[in-house]
Amino acid sequence: MELHGKPTDPYRIFFPLGIVLGAMGVSIWPLYYFGITDGYSGRAHAFVQTDGFLYSFIAGFLLTAIPRFTGTEPPSRRVQCVLAAIVAGSAIAFEFQQFAVGQTGFVIAHAFLITLAARRFRRRRLDPPDTFVLAGLGLMCGALGALINAGIALNFIRPLWDPLGKRALTEGMVLLLVLGIGGFLGPRLLGFAQLPQFVQVPDSPGPRGSKPLFYKAAGLALILSLIGEYGFGFSVLAFVRAAAASAVILSTVQPWRLPSVRSTLAWCVWTAHWLVVFAVWLVAIAPRYRVDFLHVLFIGGFTLLIVAVGTRVTLSHGGHSLAKEKASWPLQIALGTGLVAMLARVGAPFSGFTYFYHLALAALFWIGGILFWGLYLFRLIRGGVPVPEM
Q: Tell me, what's the pLDDT at 389?
């Protein structure tokens, strides 16, 4: 017998942090619409959401899951707090449009996270899932984006590389992490596969089949498409990225199949993966509305996966019954408000003089859903007691 969760699991710090930073980053739109602030910064909003909200959940999940998947120990609570403070400080700097401070902080945070992950992978006693090669490529792509963004903010790199820096984080790092983590957890949350049976690292590793090679090829194709499109103007490569992402999702999650587990969480995961596929093709087909249609990916794909995976991690590691996933009101509200927010945001460029009304409406629905779910999550974290796993 071993404890599945511990009171010092990293998600207990990073998930609540992500909720707070997400609400902070999106609040600029209603604050501006209702005249509380005189202006807004779309750039600040983008980096708070990517480097604050999304990254907090990335760090919380990886630092909880990697030790589990590799048979190593999680980082100490002191290390977790230092990383969380850097992420929070970076997001606050972005909020006040201090981009040099924010980007430098994010480089430090990302280097910190990569170091923690690499040390555990090097000392691993268990092999991580095959799809996690995509997560590794995602972290490398994130490093590329972080360095470009910091170089621009510090006037070391020309601003023409700005699109590549930003997209290396969203369409690169986060998308690859979704493909790597979702490719493993998705089939299990949908009821298509059993929970993991971790494999001891053999003394002399043998061939592992063609799947890892396929995931590496898809991940590299995705990264090269970003460099080619946003760095050198080959817009047709958006179709390569869409094809690579779709191929991974179709081969792992098989979204044409309805969930075998008929729970709110399973439907949330299923919907999110369809929205990821839809978003990458929509952006490739209609590049004129790229910024707007990318919110199908951000709000529809990424946010719904965050609330689903965040719920499962908190329930399973906190010693709660997984039956709470079946008809979860907090998840249903997060799913519903997320979809309404996505539609309001995507409709904004077609709304004429009500553009900022649509942005404020989308923000209010998103904030309401994420805070309602976040309160539920926080109560689970406070009340959770790790239980033995058989």
A: 39
- What type of residue sits at position 26? V
In order of 33, 256, 267, 348, 372, the CA distances from 358 in angstroms are 10, 32, 27, 5, 21
From residue 27, alpha-carbon distances to 13, 24, 290 in Å are 22, 5, 22
For residue 166, which of 177, 179, 152 has the smallest C-alpha distance? 152
Q: Say what the pLDDT of residue 208 is.
A: 60
The C-alpha angle with vertex 359 and arms to 355 and 363, in degrees rounded to 5, equals: 170
389 sits in which H/E element: strand 388-389
The predicted pLDDT at position 71 comes to 85
- Report the alpha-carbon distance of residue 355 to residue 348 in Å, rounded: 5
The reported pLDDT for the residue numbered 388 is 41
Q: Quick one: pLDDT at residue 4?
A: 59
Residues of the chain with pLDDT under 70: 1-5, 195-209, 384-390
Q: What per-residue string of b and e applies to 58-76 under the rule 16 or more CB within 10 Å gives b?
A: bbbbbbbbbbbbbbbebbe
Residue 130 · residue 211 · CB < 8 Å: yes
- Claim: this prediction has a pTM higher than 0.90: yes
User: Would you state the pLDDT for residue 195?
Assistant: 66
The 3-class SS string of 294-359 reads: HHHHHHHHHHHHHHHHHHHHHHHHCCCCHHHHCCCHHHHHHHHHHHHHHHHHHHHHHCHHHHHHHH
Cα 52 to chain centroid, rounded: 11
Contact 200, 222 (CB under 8 A): no
Of the candidates 148, 169, 174, which has an alpha carbon nearest to the alpha carbon of residue 160? 148
